From TrEMBL:
Entry coiled-coil feature ranges: none
Organism: bioreactor metagenome
InterPro entries according to UniProt: Fe-transptr_FeoA-like (IPR007167), FeoA-like (IPR053184), FeoA_core_dom (IPR038157), Transcriptional_repressor_C (IPR008988)
Gene Ontology molecular function, alphabetical: transition metal ion binding
Residue ranges of every copy of the Ferrous iron transporter FeoA-like domain listed in the record: 2-72
PANTHER family to which the protein is assigned, alphabetical: FEOA FAMILY PROTEIN, SSR2333 PROTEIN
Name under which the protein is recorded: Ferrous iron transporter FeoA-like domain-containing protein
SMART domains given in the database record: FeoA
Pfam families xref list: FeoA
Keywords: Iron
Length: 74
């Protein structure tokens, strides 16, 4: 398990855990980043990550992205 920030562009990963609490966890949940969901890493160039969850695409800053842990080869 590793943070989604280390995954290269084009990766298809499954969310394993979301850390933290309060507003951050609530916001990530509203975006669909919950355990068990499949996520595509569209862009990861050191700044905000561009992620695709289902039919939605959104940017996630590095700080928030560090709270999302995924299954996969780290």
């Amino acid at each position: 398990m590793c943070p989604i920030t280390v995954m290269p562009e084009g990766s298809e990963v499954t969310v394993a855990r979301v850390t933290g609490g309060g507003e951050a966890s609530k916001r990530l949940s509203e975006l669909g980043l919950v355990p068990g969901v499949q996520v595509s890493v569209v862009q990861n160039g050191g700044g905000p990550l561009l992620l695709k969850v289902g039919d939605s695409r959104f940017a996630l800053g590095q700080g928030m992205a560090l709270k999302v842990f995924v299954d996969g080869a780290c």
